[in-house]
Specification:
InterPro entries: TOD1_MUCI70_glycTrfase_dom. The chain is elongated and about 85 Å long. Helix 4 runs antiparallel to helix 5. The chain is about 40% helix and about 15% strand. It has about 270 residues and is α/β, with parallel strands linked by helices. The protein has two domains: about 10-235, Spore Coat Polysaccharide Biosynthesis Protein SpsA, Chain A (Alpha-Beta Complex); about 240-270.
């Protein structure tokens, strides 16, 4: 086993208590540390080292978890880290995963096995109602104009992510995190772009996403989740508000309002 594989941390994140923390039996067989970032002071685990962090955006647990996923590896002090979504159960020790998949690359992550393109992922997110449609469509609009080739790429599946802690990786993660906070919370819409423009070397992992020789993905019927916490924060952009906002932003309204304001000033001055 190489030195990098022995200097290894596996981590996950759970914010907002939208699902139950999944234990990792392989942690008992591995020299790697298993760390879970959370905002829940009552969370306990037999296989995870629970690390309490402040939830700075408490009304959006999804983005808090994404932030930990994308940037949390910098807090671990390890040369190599493996992120796994809470629904992933490892079937082999993480040292073997690093040796098999990372190679000389900066990052290794699985290819999405049931999406033909990033553009398909946009369509699926819209159809499933995972995020606000206007936010998803805005992101696709800018992506199509900045790097249209990325839309044709096969998307990555970000439930498993192996990284080296390097400056190039840090730049890619900063771009990725910025996009998740600026546009859709669905990080698979932006990871291809972040990796593409940063120039990091990527090792694609060819795995069946649902279950492979190294992992099992727990479906919603096995691990229920509170969708209202995961996908929504209570605010809805109602049709009436949308129409009103469109009205007050229109050129006609601005022109009429400006004339009324000038008339008011002229009358006050006379």
């Amino acid at each position: 086993m190489n030195d990098e594989a022995s200097d290894l941390v596996v981590y996950t994140a759970l914010f907002g208590s939208y699902e139950t923390l999944v234990e990792q039996p392989t942690a008992m067989l591995s020299a790697a540390r298993f760390i879970c970032f959370t905002d829940d002071p009552s969370l306990r685990s037999d296989t995870w080292e629970v690390r309490l962090v402040e939830s700075t955006v408490s009304w959006d647990p999804t983005r808090m978890a994404r932030s930990a996923k994308i940037a949390g590896y910098r807090e671990l002090g390890a040369r190599v880290s493996i992120w796994i979504d809470n629904r992933v159960v490892l079937r082999v020790i993480p040292e073997l995963i690093v040796e098999r998949f990372l190679g000389d690359a900066d990052i290794a992550l699985p290819i999405h096995d049931h999406r033909a393109s990033v553009d398909d992922e946009f369509r699926e997110v819209l159809a499933a109602g995972i995020d606000h449609p206007w936010r998803v469509r805005e992101q696709r609009y800018f992506l199509e104009r900045a790097t249209p080739d990325v839309l044709a790429q096969i998307p990555f599946w970000t439930a498993i992510l192996i990284r080296r802690d390097t400056e190039d990786v840090s730049r890619a993660m900063q771009i990725w995190r910025d996009l998740v906070f600026l546009h859709s919370r669905r990080d698979q819409l932006s990871v291809n772009y972040a990796l593409h423009v940063s120039g990091v070397t990527v090792s694609p992992m060819r795995l069946v996403n649902g279950e492979s020789e190294i992992h099992t993905w727990l479906r919603a019927d096995v691990l229920p989740k509170k969708r209202e916490l995961l996908y929504g924060h209570g605010y809805r952009y109602r049709l009436g508000m949308k129409l009103w906002d469109s009205l007050i932003a229109s050129k006609l309204y601005i022109r009429v309002r400006g004339r009324a304001q000038r008339w008011k000033w002229a009358r006050a001055a006379s």
